[in-house]
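Action item from last meeting closed. Structure (232 res):
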């Protein structure tokens, strides 16, 4: 199999997170060394039932990948508070900065995954979730699998992430050598949309800008509408 292509990606990326998560935290305010930052973050999370996950994940980040500054907590959360089941190109060990080149694609992606999770819950509909839009730049080379849905269909399976996850894990943690920065790929949830999965917190340019808030509203049948709530 030919080696995967790389592309230098210089873009503003759009990420949507649930508004209930605090926008400012320990990584925004502290100007400390790596050990003090790690200790502060674990202490801040001591009442969090996921503290054992944080304790396991934080040591997986090299010293220069614990970032601080305006919006750094939201960047670090994407790596430390990620779903234990993993994502398309990540396993449960460590999350990544999953984002899109435009907010419409970010909405389509998050609406799909939120709806999927809700359908697994009894009595989930009607329901509503408020989301916060984050914008942050990236300027780095990424593995480029755009326009590969026909050549690499296993990486674009709409529901089964086994092949794509193995592909991503192999890029991130190769048996030898240095891992890749991440992946740029086509969205399956919005035609023409482009997503990124960035494996290094240091590649997310600070400050992270908070833009709009959206509310996803599902009716009793599970049909969803999206409302932009405010500009901040």
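Sequence:
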């Amino acid at each position: 199999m030919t080696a995967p292509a790389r592309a230098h990606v210089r873009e503003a990326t759009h990420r949507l997170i649930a508004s209930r998560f605090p926008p400012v935290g320990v990584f925004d305010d502290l100007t400390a060394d790596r050990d003090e930052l790690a200790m502060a973050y674990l202490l801040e999370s001591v009442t969090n039932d996921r503290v054992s996950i944080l304790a396991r994940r934080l040591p997986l980040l090299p010293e220069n990948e614990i970032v601080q500054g305006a919006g750094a907590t939201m960047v670090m959360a994407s790596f430390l508070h990620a779903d234990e089941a993993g994502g398309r190109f990540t396993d449960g060990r460590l999350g990544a900065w999953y984002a899109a080149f435009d907010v419409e694609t970010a909405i389509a992606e998050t609406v799909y995954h939120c709806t999927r999770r809700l359908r697994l819950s009894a009595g989930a509909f009607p329901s509503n979730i408020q989301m916060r839009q984050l914008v942050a730049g990236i300027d780095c080379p990424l593995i480029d699998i755009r326009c590969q849905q026909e050549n690499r269909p296993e990486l674009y399976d709409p529901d089964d992430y086994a092949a794509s996850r193995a592909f991503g894990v192999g890029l991130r943690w190769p048996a030898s050598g240095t891992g890749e920065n991440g992946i740029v790929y086509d969205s399956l949830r919005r035609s023409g949309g482009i997503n990124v999965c960035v494996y290094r917190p240091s590649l997310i340019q600070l400050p992270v800008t908070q833009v709009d808030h959206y509310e996803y509203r599902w009716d009793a049948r599970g049909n969803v509408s999206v409302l932009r709530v405010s500009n901040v």
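Note appended to the action item: The first helix runs from residue 26 to 29.
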